[in-house]
Amino acid sequence: MTFKILSLDGGGVRGVMAARILQKVEQQIQESKGKSLQEYFDLIAGTSTGSLIAGAVVSGMDSNQVLNLYKNETLEIFPYQTRWSRKRLPLIAKYGLSAPKFSNQGLINVMQKYLVKNQVPIKIKDVVKPNILIVAYNMYKDDPSFFVNQDSKWYSDIPLWEICVSSASAPTYFPPYELKGQDKSYPYIDGGVAANNPTLAAVGYAIKLGHKLEEISIISIGTGETTNAYTFEKIVGWGLSEWAIPLFSLTLNGQAGADNLVAEQILGISNAKGYLRLQFQLTGTNNAIDDARPENIQRLIQDSESFLNQGKVNYTEIYNQPNQMLVKEAIAKFIDNN
Question: Beta-carbon neighbour count of residue 324 at 10 Å?
């Protein structure tokens, strides 16, 4: 029996693109299999904004509701553009000029609002179907953490929203989040530091659950690749202040790309059931992960529409090299085969 995984990258407000792509995936699942996202997938893995989508799906939301969440709530999480906004003054007064750009209160509010069932916060141990895996980075241990539902460890009683806030606490944008469970307490930051694309983490967990590599199929959804080009002349004199912001974005892009390459190679030669990476290059000049203005959200959705209607992707099948095909065809073929 095929073990089907949905993997969701980090990327801040650009998660709206993953939500739009997920709409298309869900539509095809309903037409081909007559199932919901919850019923179709066996494991959903998410990092940062991907953890919010993963949590929303396991809490019972469909892709339309997830997309509306991004349309309606991202300004609560990212309420201004400039680090010199008056709204940031309390953070500067408390932590100095090097303070995070945003308070995490908006992020907390949104997570608490949606990751509930019957108005009660969902604990990660309460998730039954599908399984969930959330990636965050433990600063005390200097090590990534993979939070899963089928585990009786120290975090099993922690609400899912807290784990997702931990996963989404991007350095320079938000403060770390202190996660407390039983007799333990750790400071966490964005899981993208370790696995912005959680595909390989999901594969490892599936194997730990007892599934063979040849039983696994994966749809991995990205949040767009930036196309910034840095010449040697531009970066040769950069120091700490110049590298601070772009370094985090470079880490996310580089890790996600490397993870995809390794997954494509491993799954392509292992008789796996199929691997489909839905990712594309962003257009325009502003690809920030914190630009929640309505006009930018709409632009990101339009980019996703263009990708779904005209884009091409690699679809890796059993013992084959990746085959390039139209996105719509690749999604349909993957779901028909799984």
Answer: 9
